[in-house]
Design goal:
Structural class: alpha+beta
Strand order of the largest sheet: 1-4
Order of helices and strands: HHEEEEHEEHHEEH
Oligomer: single chain
């Protein structure tokens, strides 16, 4: 199961017929979710902004990686609806994507619990915005090192989803430590996201 599908199962509310796992367990109400994304400032002149991702370069590669607990700002945990809807990615056309948008996109078009045939509009984003997510942004992060142009294998949407999974894992470890054990022999199927 993909990270996006796991996040979806834990937190997405699909109405009375399809509540989230945390709601079924009566845990979600009042939970505070770990937020590692600095706010995306409208005044920032850079079009593409990816606060959940950092760039690592070497003489032979460019990688986009999830922040995890590296370089994190001291942000306080926030209510679920704020966490789920907060813009955490701005593309080269200055369209804002939330955690919800990325998780739905990955789950519905890149595999997991459901695979759709077409990109679906969501919130204020049209289908074109989601179509553009399919790897096009990796080129935006190309770097010229000693005359060699290097680009990451994947765009920032992939490590952003990994960071969202890491945030959920940290939230569960703090708020539901009886449900999740990280690195504990009593929960062999629960492994940390790396």
């Amino acid at each position: 199961m993909t990270i996006a599908s796991l996040v979806y199962v834990f937190v997405h509310e699909g109405g009375k017929r399809s509540p989230s796992l945390l709601s079924l367990l009566h845990r979600k109400s009042g939970m505070r979710f770990e937020d590692t994304a600095l706010a995306i400032e409208k005044a920032n002149l850079i079009d593409m902004v990816t606060p959940l991702v950092f760039i690592r370069t070497s003489p032979t590669a460019v990688e986009l990686l999830p922040m995890k607990d590296d370089f994190l700002a001291n942000l306080s945990p926030i209510a679920f609806s704020t966490w789920w809807e907060k813009p955490i990615f701005r593309d080269d056309k200055r369209r804002l994507f939330s955690r919800k948008n990325l998780i739905h996109f990955f789950r519905h078009t890149l595999g997991g619990g459901h695979v759709g045939r077409h990109y679906e509009s969501q919130d204020a984003l049209d289908s074109e915005a989601f179509e553009a997510l399919r790897g096009a942004f990796a080129r935006s992060f190309s770097v010229d090192i000693n005359g060699i142009k290097l680009a990451p294998q994947y765009g920032p949407e992939y490590p952003s989803v990994r960071q969202i999974g890491w945030e959920l894992e940290q939230t569960l470890a703090k708020s539901c430590n009886d449900l999740i054990s990280i690195g504990n022999a009593t929960a062999p199927n629960m492994q940390p996201i790396e």
